[in-house]
Amino acid sequence: WECPQFVTLNGSDVMISSVWDADVLHYAGYAVGGFDGDRFRAEAWGRLTYGDGLYAPSLFFDAEGAPCVQFWIRGVGDHDAGWEGAHSVPYRLGREGSVLTATPHPDVARHRGPLALDGRVAGLAADIEWSTTDGRLTVSSGGAEVAVVDKRDTDAVVRVGDRVWTVPVGTAVRIILDGPVLEMSSSAGVFTAVLAPAGDDLHVETTAGAVVGYPLR
Question: What is the pLDDT of residues 64-116, one digit of tens each?
């Protein structure tokens, strides 16, 4: 466990930690239990992040005193342009029984532009809300497909290029797109993948469910 952090949520103590083994970085996990200031006793364990990117959550409290985290995103960068790695959007933490939840901070929505009625967004930053039990969501850029999410009842198969992941999801899915980064969150956890946009625009299409999308400024 790397960099354990503790926070109290709805009367229970939660430990959030990065999980690694033999110097291989894996994901962010958590335990719900009790912390007496000296010893933490875990009653339930869970996984918070999925995919290859999200790691090293940093706990903070926002202006309203709500506990939040922001993640380091690995595997994204432009060496020639002089940058490596990224920060995720901030997430507010919650607890549903023994399950820790992370929801994009309300401030993210304050940076939305006008509703994209046809699913087309100028630029490469967008905020998408998708509610369905199953169906397919496709993200294109420059006329080329860059990401596909095939949602089923309790999980989703995400395909980006030649990479494929199966991750747990809830009914309501939030997808934040920002240049080469996709962040997907639901009540089941947070997932990220690295994109390769082919143009300077985004087009979001779905086969089922209710979807709304906004450009982000």
Answer: 999 999 999 999 998 899 999 999 999 999 999 999 999 999 999 999 999 99
Kindly give the residue spans of alpha helices, DSSP state H, lying in the chain. 106-109
Say how far apart CA 195 and CA 180 lie, in whole Å.
4
Phi, psi of 106 (to 5 degrees): -55, -25
What's the token pair of residue 25?
A: 């970085």
Cα first-last separation, the chain: 36
The residues near 82 (Cβ < 8 Å, ≥ 6 apart) are none
Over the range 8-42, which residues count as b (16 or more CB within 10 Å of their CB) and which as e? Answer: ebeebbbbbbbbeeeeeeebbbbbbeebeeeeeee
Q: How many whole angstroms separate alpha carbon 55 and alpha carbon 38?
A: 26
